[in-house]
From TrEMBL:
UniProt-recorded name of the protein: Uncharacterized protein
TM segment ranges: 12-34, 46-64
Originating organism: Cohnella zeiphila
Record keywords: Membrane, Transmembrane, Transmembrane helix
InterPro entries in UniProt: CLC_0170-like
Length: 65
């Protein structure tokens, strides 16, 4: 009987993607908006949503695979 044991860092990577996305949306985008830096605020919003999306996709793929 063969057993598979995976001890990688996948369990840490997914929450980090989601957490960094939330932090980008909350902290960076908010601080740029207060400082009237529209381009930087938009960029941090886009990157934040990309991070959250990547984390969510990885989480779903982990359930499927």
């Amino acid at each position: 009987m063969q057993t598979y044991s995976y001890t990688g860092s996948f369990g840490y990577v997914v929450p980090l993607w989601i957490l960094t996305g939330v932090l980008l949306l909350v902290m960076d985008a908010g601080s740029f908006r207060v400082k009237s830096m529209a381009r930087e605020a938009k960029t941090s919003k886009v990157l934040g949503w990309i991070n959250i999306s990547v984390g969510a996709v990885l989480l779903v793929l982990r359930w499927i695979i």
